[in-house]
Amino acid sequence: MTKKVPPPLRQPPWTQNPRGEQRRVGVELEMAGLSLDRLAAVVAEFLGATIETSGRYERTVIGDAAGEWGVELDFDLLKRLGREQRESGTWSDDLANSAEDSLNWLAAPLVPLELVSPPLPLERLPDVERLIAILREAGATGTSDSLVNAFGMQFNPEIPSEAPAVLAAYLQAFLCLYDWLVARAEINFTRRLTTYIDPFPRAYVRKVVDPDYAPDKAALIDDYLRDNPTRNRALDMLPLFLHLDETRVRRVTTDPLIKARPTFHYRLPNCEIDRPDWGLYLAWNDWIEVERLAADAERLEACCTAYSKFLDSALKRWLGDWQAQIEQRWLAP
User: Fold this and answer.
1) What digits encode the pLDDT tens for the residues 124-139?
2) Alpha-carbon distances of 190 from 146, 176, 196, 236, 275, rounded to whole Å
3) Rounded to two decimals, what is the model's pTM?
4) At 60, which helix (H) or strand (E)?
């Protein structure tokens, strides 16, 4: 039987980063079905790389020119415990080991393993698509395999510019297309119950999609922090804003899980890695619609104007269908 070849991964309109180099993308995949060591071994074999043990719940795959790949249990407390060196035989160490084992046992059916790529040049995204297929064949399972699986795929496209106008355009495009993106992503019930991908507050959406919204960098960050001092957004801008202005962000949140990086952090998609028809292309190609709208100033202004009118009309919000309008009018031709 011939394997189905996934559709091609679309290119963004802006392909260079602020330094004039090819933009990079980091990809994060949450899954079950494989042990930690098996997952690391499959990734290492695919890359022709080697494995280092970082802790009892962490492995590092080294040897890729782009950087290190992380393989870990997605549970920060267990990862920290797993880095501690203990010996059996003493009362305190035996008690700590027992508590850690119990925590691991409780976490096993609920907490995914996570594969975290280094920032990969755009030209290497097909490698991720091929790796997904290999992991599927190895037995990896995803969001729909269990009712309790709140597994996601996240990716981190590097920004093409630090100009506030460009970053604001991305936010406007994302908020305008949000209803369509959610429908396309088919977010499972368990993930909807979590707070990981909460929608943006309506007041913030209304402020940003105003066609006249043109903040400087400080106002862009302050507006975001005022209504979104949390990582739990489908498009998490905190890593980027921490990169741009650490002092401003740390005045509002000291969350140690927020790491500075010059990327958008897109958290919306499920990880359906065990489905033969699923791949990176589904969420990535939808994200490219955000990129294309952000890069088309005339179409973006018209879309923001239409969406602002939609939000301002209670009747349209109750009876209208903004998602249908997106599909009919605002996607790239």
Assistant:
1) 999 999 999 999 999 9
2) 9, 25, 11, 20, 18
3) 0.88
4) strand 58-62
